[in-house]
Structure to design on (117 residues):
């Protein structure tokens, strides 16, 4: 899945050691969508992706993510795990392309823009 928005919070990085003895790290962010009724989405990058996709407050991005849920002690927890991010400029273009965007077409893919409801 993908969403476009602006980073409005950068939460403190987390790291530790798993039960198997492996080091891990996680960085969480809060993104606000650019919809008529903006939504806030807390997501994270895990492992090597923390360094691969460094984001800062105010960045406009396109986030590719997966949603996963798990049960622990009878309660369900849901994570939004980012796996790719691309910065966007203020005129709606990505950092990788020079094409412009209209309000109904996405400049990144050329497909109609899909909004979360």
């Amino acid at each position: 899945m993908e969403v476009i928005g602006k980073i409005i919070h950068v939460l403190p990085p987390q790291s530790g050691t798993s039960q198997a003895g492996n080091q891990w790290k996680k960085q969480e962010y809060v993104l606000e969508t650019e919809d008529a009724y903006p939504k806030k989405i807390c997501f994270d990058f895990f492992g090597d992706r923390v360094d691969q996709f460094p984001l800062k407050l105010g960045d406009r991005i396109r986030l590719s993510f997966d949603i996963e849920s798990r049960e622990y002690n009878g309660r369900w927890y849901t994570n939004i795990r980012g796996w790719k991010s691309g910065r966007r400029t203020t005129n709606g273009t990505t950092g990788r392309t020079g094409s412009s965007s209209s309000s109904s077409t996405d400049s990144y893919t050329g497909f109609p823009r899909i909004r979360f409801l």
